[in-house]
Amino acid sequence: MRLLTFLALALIGGPLCAQVGGQADREFDAEGSKVEVEIGCGDTAIIGVSSLGVGAEFAHIDAIRKTRWPDQPLPYDTATGKGLYASFFGSGDFNLAKLPASYAGLSLVILGTDLVPIKSKNSDGSTPWAQVLFLKADIPNTVFWVDFDAAVSSGEIQEFRANWSLREEEFQP
Q1: Which of 17, 38, 147, 34 is nearest to 6 (CA)?
Q2: If we measure between CA atoms, which residue out of 8, 3, 47 comes closest to residue 24?
Q3: Distances in Å between the alpha carbon of 16 and those of 26, 155, 156?
Q4: CB 39 within 8 Å of CB 4
Q5: The dihedral sign for the CA sequence 92, 93, 99, 105
Q6: Residue 1 CA to chain centroid, in angstroms?
Q7: How far is 69 from 154, CA to CA, in rounded Å?
Q8: What is the DSSP string of 158-170?
Q9: Which residues, in sequence order, are CB contacts of 124 under 8 Å at separation 6+?
């Protein structure tokens, strides 16, 4: 049984908090209750099917390829993913495309998460924000940009799998 229940968003650049089930018995405590797992850098996202229909490109997942890099790119913490947004998207030129349907069902490693401003304004003039998940792409100089809320609620992200090797010391059944 596959289950993904969105619980809450963590602080800016922090892990996403989700409850996952069906992949490993370590996700349940001794009484069989669900264990909350933080989803973040190094974990895996399973791509579902496009919300636009089978065979259609994804509505909430983009492939962003960087075509020009600055002389001194900003470093980021590859262990936590912190600073990835500023490092990759800070300056340069980009090509943007919707993720093709051929990625449905694939497992992709999470590079990081961030809370980013949206270019459009709210009716009151304030800037809206979106929780974004960055996935490792199989295309050079490319990351997959996932609008987390929309992709999860539409099923474009089917499930998450925690990298338990990163959490062995955290898990206490």
Answers
A1: 17
A2: 3
A3: 19, 17, 16
A4: no
A5: negative
A6: 22
A7: 33
A8: EEEE--GGGTTTT
A9: none
Quote the strand ranges of the chain, DSSP E: 3-9, 16-21, 37-39, 44-47, 61-68, 93-98, 107-117, 129-136, 142-147, 157-161
> Which residue from 120, 109, 116, 122 is spatially nearest to 149, judged by alpha carbons?
116
pLDDT digits (tens, 9 = 90+) for 32-85: 666 666 788 999 999 999 999 989 999 999 999 999 988 777 888 888 889 899
Kindly tell me if the per-residue pLDDT of 29 is higher than 80: no
| CA distance linking residue 130 with residue 147, whole number of Å | 7
Q: Token pair 């933080």 is at which residue?
A: 38
Q: Which residue has the tokens 């650049």?
A: 13
**What are the Cα distances from residue 90, in Å, to 29, 86, 100, 122, 139?**
42, 5, 25, 24, 20
Closest CA to 89 of 42, 157, 11, 145: 145
Query: Bigger pLDDT: 126 or 3?
Result: 126
Place of tokens 């590859």: 78
**Counting beta carbons within 10 angstroms of the beta carbon of residue 133, is it exposed (0 to 12), middle (13 to 18) or buried (19 or more)?**
buried
